[in-house]
């Protein structure tokens, strides 16, 4: 690899394993959410963001920011969730062109049913396998990477 890039073979292997672990863990967590709660990771992320928001509602743009999704993907997800009664769209009182995405009572129930099992799965598939120093190392590394990504985003927006 070093002939083509500045990443040596050992570092490349770390990167490949990191990407694979992320993909496989997300896939398994999604499979379990579907099986146990009848919702997807996407549903869960939307509902959790709304659950944590004041009045259990957010503007679509703020919701997209919170979960890191583009407008089009969020719109399709919300359409499916509205059809299933998990969320609803409400007009904004102060902005005739704006709207809110609101967690419904059924959405709240679905989320609360899923939370305990999902947390258990995160623990058993990931957290329980790590030693305390490994958890600290992952937290520290994640913080540094997120800070760097924030710097890059700020420069591009700049």
Q: Could you characterize the architecture of this molecule?
A:
The protein is mainly alpha-helical. The protein contains six helices and three strands; from the N terminus they run H-H-E-H-H-E-E-H-H. The protein has a three-stranded antiparallel beta sheet. Helix 2 crosses helix 5.
Please describe the structure with a list of short key phrases separated by commas or semicolons.
mainly alpha, 158 residues, 69% helix
Radius of gyration: 19 Å
- Gross geometry: globular
Portion in strands = 5-15%
Strand order within the widest sheet? 1-3-2
* Record field, number of beta strands: 3
Question: How would you classify the helix and strand content by structural class?
Answer: mainly alpha
Average pLDDT, rounded to a whole number, is 92
SSE succession: HHEHHEEHH
Distance between the termini: 34 Å
Percent helix, as a range, is 55-70%
Extract low-pLDDT stretches.
Answer: none
The protein's oligomeric status is: single chain
Biggest beta sheet summary: 3 strands, antiparallel
Tally of individual helices: 6
Brief write-up:
This protein has 158 residues and is mainly alpha-helical. The protein contains six helices and three strands; from the N terminus they run H-H-E-H-H-E-E-H-H.
Q: Which secondary structure elements does this structure contain, and how are they paired or packed?
A:
Blueprint: H1 9-37, H2 41-52, E1 57-58, H3 60-67, H4 71-83, E2 87-91, E3 99-103, H5 105-125, H6 132-157
Antiparallel strand pairs: 1-3, 2-3
Helix pairs in contact: 1-5, 2-5
């Amino acid at each position: 690899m070093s002939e083509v890039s500045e990443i040596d073979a050992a570092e490349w292997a770390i990167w490949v394993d990191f990407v694979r672990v992320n993909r496989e863990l997300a896939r398994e967590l999604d499979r379990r959410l579907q099986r146990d709660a009848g919702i997807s990771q996407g549903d869960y992320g939307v509902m959790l963001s709304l659950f944590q928001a004041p009045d259990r509602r957010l503007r679509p743009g703020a919701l997209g920011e919170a979960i890191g999704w583009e407008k089009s993907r969020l719109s399709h997800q919300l359409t499916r969730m509205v059809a299933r009664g998990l969320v609803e769209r409400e007009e904004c009182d102060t902005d005739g062109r704006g709207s809110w995405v609101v967690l419904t009572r059924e959405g709240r129930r679905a989320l609360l049913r899923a939370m305990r099992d999902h947390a258990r799965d995160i623990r058993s598939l990931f957290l329980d396998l790590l030693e305390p120093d490994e958890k600290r190392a992952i937290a520290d590394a994640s913080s540094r990477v997120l800070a760097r990504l924030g710097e890059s985003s700020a420069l591009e927006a700049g």
